[in-house]
Amino acid sequence: MRKKWEVALRREGFTASESSVICSEHFKQDEFDRTGQIDSEMVLFPPSSASRFTSKDYVLPASPTALKARLNEALARVESLERERKNAMAREKRAKTTVRSLLGDLREKNLINEELKERLDFYSDLQIDFKAKQGHEYSKDHREFALTLHLHGPKAYKYLRETKNVPLPHPHTLQRWLCSVDGKPGLNKMMLDMLERRCQEDQATYGCVALMLDAMAIRK
Questions:
Q1: Where is the Transposable element P transposase-like RNase H domain (predicted)?
Q2: In this predicted structure, what is the pLDDT of residue 106?
Q3: In a domain, 155, yes or no
């Protein structure tokens, strides 16, 4: 049986050993024995045709000229794939932008004032993926940006979402998020945590803050 495989492979000077193997991709499914009547999980039937092992895809040409031509074909294929990869990366980069560019556009169209722009500048480096589908999972920073913009600039929010097709959450989603905010009287832990995180991220801007407390009557 081993001799039959050596002949079928047609590899000059090749002698099969106990550890010699052949890739299963070269065989059809009906050439495997999966009956379970033998110890091995899959055993190949005796080779019925050697044509697949002499295909130009698996056998190197004997002529140096033909070998060089095959190499040039492979190199051209590699260059083509590399160009495709770079083009895909460029498309991916164009599909993403940052909040900074969005704020500049909104300011030029007078959809936000300078005060709101300065407030949102904290999120300037936040990336917006235009390829993301509506309703995808939003990060904590994306949520804060969306809530702040919608609260202080609803027209700007609508412009970005409906005209510029920025994948911002639907206003109903924002309302659902706000329903989960703890609005009970007293110090709001979520706001204190946010201030602490801002201070850690930007010590120069948020290193010194004033905490103002006020009291109000609440009717049941």
A1: 184-220
A2: 92
A3: yes
